[in-house]
Amino acid sequence: MGASLDLAALRARTPPDIQPVDAPVNLAATRQDGLGCHSGKETMRQAAAAAGLGETLESLKRDYPVGPHDQPQSMCPAFGSLRVGLRMRRTATILSGSACCVYGLTFTSHFYGARRTVGYVPFNSETLVTGKLFEDIRDAVHATADPALHDAVVVINLCVPTASGVPLRLLPREIDGVRIIGIDVPGFGVPTHAEAKDVLAGAMLKVARAEAEQGPVAAPRQGRDGRPTVALLGEMFPADPVQIGALLAPLGLGAGPVVPTREWRELYAALDCAAVAAIHPFYTASLREFEAAGRPAIGSAPVGHDGTAAWLDAVGDTCGVARASVEAAKNRFLPAIRGALDANPIRGRITLTGYEGSELLVARLLVESGAEVPYVGTACPRTPHSEADRDWLQARGCHVQFRASLEQDLAAVEEVRPDLAIGTTPVVQKAKERAIPALYFTNLISARPLMGVAGAGSLAQVVNGAMAQRERFDAMRSFFAGIGTGHAAGIWEEVPQKRAAPRRPAPEKPIGETV
């Protein structure tokens, strides 16, 4: 299996070139910027609590605890909530925050394929302090809430409005039948964008559950076939719900909607399930709503041979399926999964890091494919529904780091020196600088099927192809040795001095020329 990961070294050793920078707060900028980005997280937390949002922050802290360090390094968390709203039909999204933040979020959302207008309520120091900003938000909501166009309007407070106590809870619950969902998603309260998806999904489920408790609600667009369903929690590759549905069919069950949903009426269908599968186990707010609706949760996912077997057993036990039906389903699918794994082996040592929430599932699939995976880092937290995956991986020599920092992920690459590093952009960059093949997790790994038979052999081609590039990396590193370092770093230590232009030599006289 090769050298194992030295956990003591991982905890104690961080390479000198990746030490975190603990920059002091720019106090002058703080005085000019009010409660802007320069004022620091603790100052903004205190300001939000003083402005009446203390309970909101405490709720976020309970749902999304950080860990040994302050916060994983990733994109603005609010992107997760923005993404959820933009992917839903008949849903409008309005942002309230600093202009620079709104620009970055809308740029990123359109980069990832959003084709929807994002509303923005600008503010200045005066409107923020006097409460006019809230009035502007309320006016924008009234102008947007057109029942002919929208089922819901989502308003997202970013850092500065949350720190200033802008009370979205005072917005009307609905306008002309259009639901108004106001949420706070500050960077100093929600650790990752993956968990911010849960902030909005949970808020919507809460409203949908209250509506379903009051009387009849809209049926799913595609109708229902009468079978009990298992709702699926967490964004996943489009083919995965289809694969899960195939696994559930022999049990007399169907795959329910995927939460976050694509339209409002799917929320009712998701809540009307026999059980919910916590494919992404950190959706705490959403799981709370399913629990309030009396729906039990199932952890892990049907990945690989062992994962599929354990998941089918859990579904059968939770949903009261006859043991004979569960065993028949296992006998039908497990040999095919084992055959796909054996036909697509992965041989090599791999480190895996990411912030999507499916890192442990991918690691399980890699291990069952034959890879050695000594380290898995995820920006997401440890929860009761992730324990089965954690225990399975640790039993096979894998160190699982929840709330992993960039420094821990990079130190693991340095310590293990893997044949392939799968991770976030800075991890991939650092690995390639070390001539280690690397793959970006979000675009190249999580954008592939993972579940059932289709997922069993889905990673081998891209992973083996990347590991086969080791010699090319060595050749490139040798060819470009020294570029970008030392005197070739492109950094001027002193002001360049202007030098006189060189004198040109006098032209030679042509042969035969006389003076």
Automatic annotation (TrEMBL):
Keywords, sorted A to Z: Bacteriochlorophyll biosynthesis, Chlorophyll biosynthesis, Oxidoreductase, Photosynthesis
InterPro entries listed in its UniProt record: BchY, LIPOR_BchN/ChlN, Nase/OxRdtase_comp1, Protochlorophyllide_Rdtase
Region (Disordered): 495-515
Residue stretches of biased makeup (Basic and acidic residues): 505-515
Keyword Signal: no
Keyword rRNA processing set for record: no
Gene Ontology molecular function terms on file: oxidoreductase activity, acting on iron-sulfur proteins as donors, NAD or NADP as acceptor
SUPFAM superfamilies: Helical backbone' metal receptor
Gene3D superfamilies reported in the protein's UniProt record: Nitrogenase molybdenum iron protein domain (3.40.50.1980)
GO biological process terms on file: bacteriochlorophyll biosynthetic process; photosynthesis
Sequence ranges assigned to domain Nitrogenase/oxidoreductase component in this UniProt record: 76-466
A GO-annotated cellular component: membrane
Protein name: Chlorophyllide a reductase subunit Y
Organism, as annotated: Methylobacterium currus
